[in-house]
Amino acid sequence: MYWYQNKNLLKNSSRALSLFLGSALLFWSCGSPSATKNPQKSSDIFSVDSFFTAEVNRLQQLNPSVLKSVNKDGEKEQKELKISNWKNELSAFQAADISKNFDPSLYDVKAIDCVTEFTAKKKDLQIQKLRIEFDRNEKVKHIHIDKKITNTLYDSQEKLDYYSDSLYRIIKLQDVQGLDANQYEIVGKLIPSKK
To answer: CA–CA separation, 118 vs 145, rounded Å?
Structure first.
């Protein structure tokens, strides 16, 4: 009887250990390289600038075809083309970097599973939200940016989305004093190369 109870105890212990290790590996595999709980210095923060510099170089070499659509105030135009200058094409994303001279008193930082999110604590900051999603291999899957500029001449709001290897989107609403508000949306879909 003693050997039977020990076998059950051993079996239950190994199940619990397996479950614990599996959960730990799942959590660990979904962690991002920048998913620090309380980043204290700018070197701890994900660099949007560095990421998009690498993407510009990669896309410049890859030279994919892009199905690009522009929708300005309801008028839509769409065409397939090659982007000759990816640095210029992705400049709105690259300019939204908060890692240089990062001040933790200006942003709430949340790192949960495969997502790291920076939310502005003050309404006058240009970058109101930066959200980075990683895949299980810690590769950037999606970047979302909410950007806002308010001054005496105009108000501007931008929503930027970049999905690695598939799509980028810029939605901008601009309200210039004395003129009608205008809105435009740019969507670029990367067309997979035919092999």
So the answer is: 10
